[in-house]
Amino acid sequence: MRCQVSDFARVPCGDPDISGAGCEALHCCFDQQCYYANEVTVHCLQDGQFMVVVSRAATFPLLDLGSVNMLESHSGGYCGPVSASPAFAVFQFPVSACGTTVKVEGDYVVYENRISSTYEVGVGALGSITRDSVFELDFQCSYYGSEVVSLVAEVNTVPPPLPVAAPGPLDVELRLASGQCGAKGEKGVEGCSDAEVYSDYYRDADYPVTKVLRDPVYVEVRILDKTDPHLVLLLEDCWATSTSSPLSLPQWSLLVDGCPYRDDRYQTSLVPVDGSSGLPFPTHYKRFIVQMFTFVDPASYVPLKEMVYIHCSTQVCHPTASDRCDQQCSGRKQRRSVPVGKRSIDEKAVVSSKAVMVTNTEPSGQSLHSAVPWSVSYGLLGGAACVLLVSSLALAISFMKQSHVQVKV
């Protein structure tokens, strides 16, 4: 995967006449020519410059390279990409430019900078979310005599989720389907029927379920232990929180009065459940699909490293001659038929899912290499080493070796 780069998208790595062994020493890919792999690579060049090559495959969903930018430059000069291909953006600038910070650590002088991406945030009355990949890259060049700095890698893991409890007077269950396409055993297969997509469900041992941003989350709410074919399950509101409590903040609406929340750019999709579903009592079920997101801090818009829990307020309706308990959604208006005198407080319940979390959005390894020979000097500085600190949602990594560094997720 790391070397599967189309010919037209390849960015040359190293000198034009570099050998295959020399190419591998730079942790690049070689196929008649040397080119950068599908990852993030940082080189400290021998003339005292940073070279950062960012692949759009650094995150999933794929990174929008147009959203990637440097720290604000206080010294002037151009700090944007010096070249680009459909799959890569290349930044190259002096270690003293483009907002680089300088610090002295004993006998070492360390130059540090950051590249990050912008992302779209949906702002609601009770919380804010994003479905875009969030990319941050901290990188360093450390100089001292003819020695190379060695640093230690540290990976921060996400703490285990809180337990979920959602009791209610009505025996209703909210569960998540895995999205497996029946016997095909594949996810998101085009042409799969709704019955196939909702044929397999996560078990207790599968939680917390992990998803990447914009992945579909298949939700089903159903009445348990009822055989009356005339009962109709209604969803009033469905929303998401970052804890197991349906009353906690922040919150993000998914359904309002049984209809997709209209202020969500990626609106929830309602899945019809009728006689073709193969279920004995189709009116006892409601299904919908949510595209995965993560909450962000309402003040700083920084993505929060938290779980997502889905909740729905439900009600059972008894159809009458004048009311069929329909929930209809159309256009900008959201309306729901409300039967009169056919519901009671004992037939209402709030049900919740177990934890869903955003998994690592960087499927490919991140790498960092020093391209400066030990005998080369730059000003008062000698050999160079680089360190890459990557943070993408729940991951913060710093790693370096003597000749090159490769950070693996």
UniProtKB/TrEMBL annotation:
Disulfide bonds join C3-C29, C13-C28. SUPFAM superfamilies: Trefoil. Residues 1-38 form the P-type domain. GO terms for cellular component: egg coat; plasma membrane. InterPro entries: P_trefoil_dom (IPR000519), P_trefoil_dom_sf (IPR044913), Zona_Pellucida_Domain_gp (IPR051148), ZP-C (IPR055355), ZP-C_dom (IPR042235), ZP-N (IPR055356), ZP_chr (IPR048290), ZP_dom (IPR001507). It comes from the Eukaryota. GO terms for biological process: binding of sperm to zona pellucida; prevention of polyspermy. PROSITE patterns: P_TREFOIL_2, ZP_1, ZP_2. Keywords: Cell membrane, Cleavage on pair of basic residues, Disulfide bond, Extracellular matrix, Fertilization, Glycoprotein, Membrane, Secreted, Transmembrane, Transmembrane helix. It is found in: Cell membrane; Zona pellucida. The chain crosses the membrane at residues 376-399. It is a single-pass type I membrane protein. Residues 43-336 form the ZP domain. Component of the zona pellucida, an extracellular matrix surrounding oocytes which mediates sperm binding, induction of the acrosome reaction and prevents post-fertilization polyspermy. The zona pellucida is composed of 3 to 4 glycoproteins, ZP1, ZP2, ZP3, and ZP4. ZP4 may act as a sperm receptor. This is Zona pellucida sperm-binding protein 4.
